[in-house]
Every structure is written in structure tokens, then in C-alpha cells.
Amino acid sequence: MKKLALKIDVDTWRGTREGVPRLMEALKRHDAGATFLFSLGPDHTGRAIKRVFRPGFLSKVSRTSVVEHYGIRTLLYGTVLPGPDIGRREAALLRGVRDAGFEVGIHCWDHIKWQDYVTGKDAAWTRAEMHKAARRFREIFGEEARTHGAAGWQINDAALAYQQELGMRYASDGRGSHPFQPLDAAGRPLGVPQLPTTLPTLDELIGLDGLSNDNVHEHLLKLTEAETATGHVYTLHAELEGMRLMEVFDRLLDGWKRQGYQLVSCVDLFDSQDLANLPSGRVVMGEIPGRSGTLALQA
């Protein structure tokens, strides 16, 4: 059966406590698996205001209703209001996700800090941030994390290498078309295999080319009509599909099931691959339509 993996990025405290339970209920209703990737440290969403100077950021904000989706209070965390410690406050909820049968992994320690700075930082800074997230994951779940999905699809070679040291099986840190083994600049294997996101996200599509909340699911379903040998990975957000875009997500799940997809976790899709013969390639930074700035891409 052809497979489509659901990768859920949980960026904020509000997304954790409100979006995650709603997504769990929706997934159970559709008999779907998924991978939840958690932000485990402080919610400093308000510090994203610095991105206002990034090309394309204001246009994205205006068409995706950031205030509506995230809420005023969340947009003040880390500036006017102290950033709540997500992992400490919501440890029981996070364990409940795992206990309900969903795969869980690391998104980041501090989402804004990682997304805004990791590509320009050295190995020591990178390892320190990842170590904090790995330690908190172990405190919450009593076991090591086996997967990682970089916040904002921002990554560097030091992070890719450290994932292997942390004992992870695979990661989903960037965008691409099929699973692959990353290489360093010298062409040597780097870190663990990557299972990249293969489909655009709702916030990249809504507001462009006539796409709206009412019809964006039709566009995505057209992209998945043709079967691929290695399946698809769709990234959703607890703050979007788990809240005001839940109806869109329901329509997508219905449509994918009609297309014959088994909706699974990332590890289920990963385990279905020919792991002994994965292609290899570099992870590079580049741009994609609908998203401001650069992000990790499969070369």
C-alpha cells in the first residue's frame, strides 16, 4: 500500500496544549498515524519580530493571518511576556501523545533561537542547543529521541553529524523528493538518513494563485494523485492544522484515503524504504515559493 507520512511540528506552548489534543482526536478519527516533533524549551515566539526585515516576510504575514493563528499572547512571549517552558509545563501531555501510539521526537529546544541563528553558528553552539533538547526529551519520556525535525527547516552540518552521536535512526530536517543519506563537503556520509518533506505546507500555499482555506486541499491532492516509489511526507503545524485550519486538514485526510494512501508516522515510512540502497546527496540552503528566507533542501 502506498504511504503518506504525517509530520507534525509543534512550535509553541499554545500549539502544544490546544493544537496537539485536537490533532490526536482527528488522527484517531481517521485511523491515521503521525509523528509529533516537540519544541521542548522556552516559547520565545515574540522574538520573531526581527524577521520583519527579511525579504518576503511581511507579504507572508499578511496573507497567512499570523495573529489569527497564533494569538496575541503567544506573539508577546520572549519580549513583553516571559517565555513559558513548554516541556516542563506539558510533560504529561507529551507522554500522553506517545502513550496513544504516535511517534514522538525533537523539533528543537528554543524554536526562534534555532530557526534564526543555527545556520550561522559553530559546532559548539549547535551541540549545546541540541543537547538541551535531548536531555529534556529523556527527562520527559525516559528514553532517547530517535528522530529530529529541524525548526523552520534550518540546519547545519554540525547538527546533522550530532544526530548520529545522539543515537537517532533518521531525521526529517529539510525539503526534498525522496529519502537519502546526507554527505559532507568531502562527499563522506554525514549523520543519519534524511526523510525530507515532499509536499508544500498550507501557509506556503494559502493566499497565492487563488488558493484559499476552501480550495487549498484540492491543490495538494492533485500533487499526490500520482504514486511515488518512496511515498510522501507532509508537514503540518499544531498551530495551523491543529486549530483554525482543522477543517482543511480533515478534507486532506479524507482525500488521501480516497487516493489509497495509508496515513502513517515518519518512522513507518522510513522502515518501508530500501535502507541498504539509499541514494546520497548534500543538504544545501535555498529558497522555495511561498516561504521567506532560505531553508534546507535536498541537493
UniProtKB/TrEMBL annotation:
Domain of life where this protein originates: Bacteria
TM segment ranges: none
Protein name: 4-deoxy-4-formamido-L-arabinose-phosphoundecaprenol deformylase
Protein species of origin: Chromobacterium piscinae
Residue ranges of every copy of the NodB homology domain listed in the record: 2-264
